[in-house]
Amino acid sequence: MKYSNHQDSLIALVSHLGLTKHKSRTPLFISKNTGIPEDKVRKILAEFPGLFRKSRNISSKNENFYTLQIRYALRGSQYDEDTKEEEGTPLEITHIVSLLDFISNQAHQEQNINIANVQLEQTKELFLKELQLNKESMSQELTIAKSQINNSKRASIIAAVAAIISAIISAVVANNC
Questions:
Q1: Is residue 175 exposed (0-12), middle (13-18) or buried (19+ Cβ within 10 Å)?
Q2: DSSP β-ladder status, 52-58 and 64-68
Q3: How is domain 7-122 classified at the CATH fold level?
Q4: pTM of the model as a whole
Q5: Which positions ≥6 away from 72 have C-beta within 8 Å?
Q6: Residue 48, SS3?
Q7: What is the pLDDT along the chain (177 residues), one digit of tens a residue?
Q8: b/e 155-164 (16+ beta carbons within 10 angstroms → b)
């Protein structure tokens, strides 16, 4: 899953989970509070485990709780797992800004990679066309060179035959005299 494909939803989920008074939320409540369809919320929470932590415990409606990894880490070891949507302290704005910057930077890097890949593919196509033109040109030059070699061989053979004929004629004339 790419950050650039889900940047808006990631920003909404990080903002919600970072600023909510609840320590953790279920996908249903996250969806209700953000307006993002529940299936999309579930998919994003599952596909970005570096941002979102899934609790091993489940709610009374048989759903896992989710929070931000950083929010869970800042709680300390006193809270091993969530068992309900308890209240907690929202993240400091500096942590949220850092996460949002991270998401933005990841999306930007992915877009730059996509642009570079397109440019690389275009360069490859141009190179292959140039290579084909060079191949055709070299093939033509090789044909011309072969023709010149054949012409040179013919000229050498003709010159040798002419020399032999000249020698024969000279010998016949010398014998007749």
A1: exposed
A2: antiparallel
A3: Arc Repressor Mutant, subunit A (1.10.10)
A4: 0.65
A5: 53, 79
A6: coil
A7: 789 999 999 999 999 999 999 989 999 999 999 999 999 999 999 999 999 999 888 888 889 999 999 999 988 755 555 555 567 788 899 999 999 999 999 999 999 998 998 998 988 888 888 888 777 778 788 888 888 888 888 888 888 888 888 888 888 777 876
A8: eeeeeeeeee
Tokens found for residue 79: 């809270």
The structure tokens listed for 83 are 């068992």
Length of the chain: 177
Record the tokens describing residue 6, joined without a space.
């889900």
The contacts of residue 31 (CB under 8 Å, 6+ apart) are: 37, 38, 41
Assess contact for 26 and 108: CB atoms under 8 A: no
Cα dihedral across residues 34, 40, 42, 43: positive or negative? negative
C-beta neighbour count of 105 within 10 angstroms: 11
Tokens of 58: 């489940």
